[in-house]
Every structure is written in structure tokens, then in C-alpha cells.
Amino acid sequence: MSRRIYDFSYIERIIQSYGDCLTKRKMTTIIYEPRGRAKEYSELAANLYSGCDHACSYCYAPLATRKKRDTFCLSKPRDGVLKKFLNDAEELERQNEKRSILLSFTTDPYQSLDVKYQLTREAIKILHNHNLCVSILTKGGKRSERDFDLLSKNKNRSEYGITLVFIDEEMRQKMEPGAAPVVERIEALKKAHKLGIKTYVSLEPVWFPEDALKFIDMTHDFVDLFKVGKLNYNPQQFNVNWTVFRNDVIEKLREYGVDYYIKKDLEKYSLDPLAVNY
Ligand code: SF4
Question: Which of 54, 67, 75, 104 to mutate to test the pocket of ligand 1 (most atoms within 8 A of CB)?
């Protein structure tokens, strides 16, 4: 096993990169401006729940939120979250904020807990009522379809994205036990697209490059944007030739003529600086 796994700087880097998800704008308490790697993904975000019952084995959030993995999986609503979220939304509306608020970085907005609490639905309503934009990112599958009525009513202020990692369902169950099966996520994405909601797919983490490439084949007809990253902070990353993957993925995305964004972590494996697409 690689020496780097036991290197304390590895933990520090995660906390520096994502722990700043906890840094909040001065005037807000729940909606915040991430920094580092997270900011590249979205300039504003909110986490309505503390923890996530999807329990993905590769999840960085327990470290970022300084929780033990077992405790992190016992998720709960954050204290007084909707009241604080409403205050933040009012403030952002006063500032005429146009950037999307991502739900979410360190939790999933459609984990099973949300079936009971429905905080995500209330948060979307608050954002739309305050002329703010929402970007959903989830592995919740069918659970997330509940709120398509809200997203489709406010298409110009909504986008819906799913994360896809494993093609093999057994592997998915092992690595993302609480999340929805991949076929269910793709079905939800297709429905969102049919309703005219802007859709995106997040290919990150990339565990097996061949799976990421196959997902593009499977979904490109109903995806407006692909966001492609790599795998970090896991020994599996050393089994992948990221230069080859970067070139293969760009070639495929260009063949299909779809919009894409290559994250900086992967882009640094570029062999051709002119190929940068952002
Ligand atoms: S869905 Fe996201 S936040 Fe939840 S456990 Fe998986 S990686 Fe972590």
C-alpha cells in the first residue's frame, strides 16, 4: 500500500481543500462560499443535513467535517437550518445574487432522511421565492423526482445533476450502500431532461476510467453538461493513467458534441495545453 495513505499531510490537504466548506460568508450562516477545490465546482453552496446516510466508502466529507465515518452516516437535520437558510436567502436577494446555490457538498440533498424531513424541497422553494438559483447534485435517484415540479416551474433558476461512479451494481452497493442504484439515477436524469430542466452529470470520483467513458455513452443524449474530475486521496488513484483518461474522455465528449468541464485536478494531466476547454 502506498506510503502516502499514512502521511498526515494527506489529511491536512483534504481539510484545507474541503474543510473550508465550513467557512461561511460573513452575512450568512448556512449558504456559504466554498474555497479551494470545492469553489471550482460551485461558488455558493448549502448543506441542510449534518452527515449523509448514503455512506459512500470514498466520501471525503467525514474528514472535511471532522467526524468519524460511522457518526457521519447517522445524519440529522442541522439545527434551525431552514430559518437560517431563509435569512441567508433574504440577504442574498438583497445583494441581487445571480450565482447558483449548490445542494450540496458535504451531504446529499436526497438521502433517505430527506423523505421524512423534506428540507430540500423547502430550501428550493425559499431560493426560488427569493429569485435565487439552485443547483442540485445527488445520488438519490427516484427520491429526487419528488421536487421536479419545483425545478420545472423555475427552469431558468434550476439545474439538476447526478453523480455516476460505478457501472457494476454489486460494486455500487458495496461502495455507495445507501445511494440509489445507478439505473435509477439515470432514469431520474432522463425525466428531468424531458421536463426541460437543465441537466448535468458529475463524473467524480473516477474509480474506473472505463466506467466513466461508458456513462458518457449511456447518458449524452439527455445531459447538458458533463463535469469530469479524477480520484483523489485513495490508493486506487495510482492504478489509473490520468493522462490517457483525460485524453480519452475529451475525445469522446467532443465526438458527441456535448458541453463539458474538465476539473483542474484532471486538467493538469494535459499533454496539449491548447485542448483546455474552460
Ligand atoms: S452521497 Fe456524497 S455526501 Fe453522501 S456519503 Fe456519498 S459522497 Fe458523501
Answer: 54
Task: Say yes or no: CB of residue 64 within 6 Å of ligand 1.
Answer: no
The yes-or-no verdict on residue 14 having pLDDT over 50 is no
pLDDT digits over 109-143, tens only?
999 999 999 999 999 999 999 999 999 999 999 99
pTM: 0.89
- d(CA 205, CA 119) in angstroms, rounded, equals 26
Tens digit of pLDDT for each residue in 153-208?
A: 999 999 999 999 999 999 999 999 999 999 999 999 999 999 999 999 999 999 99
The residue segments making up the domain with residue 216 are 3-275
Q: Is the pLDDT of residue 52 over 90?
A: yes
Give the residue with greater pLDDT, 273 vs 67: 67
- Is there a cis peptide before residue 205, judged by omega within 30 degrees of 0? yes
Rounded Cα distance between 229 and 205, Å, is 6
Query: Ligand 1 centroid to 231 CA: how many Å?
Result: 14
| Complete DSSP assignment for 59-119 | -SHHHHTT--HHHHHS-EEPTTHHHHHHHHHHHHHHTT--SEEEE-SSS-TTSTHHHHH-H
Quote the cell numbers at residue 47. 448543506
State if residue 107 touches ligand 1 by the CB under 6 angstroms criterion.
yes
- Asked if residue 186 lies in contact with residue 69, where contact means CB atoms within 8 angstroms, the answer is no
User: Which CATH number is 195's domain given?
Assistant: 3.20.20.70
Q: Give the sign of the dihedral formed by CA 183, CA 189, CA 190, CA 192.
A: positive
Q: How many structural domains does the chain have?
A: 1
Instruction: Give distance in angstroms: CA of 275 to centre of ligand 1.
Output: 31
Residue of the CA atom closest to atom 3 of ligand 1:
107
Q: Which of 21, 56, 74 to mutate to test the pocket of ligand 1 (most atoms within 8 A of CB)?
A: 56
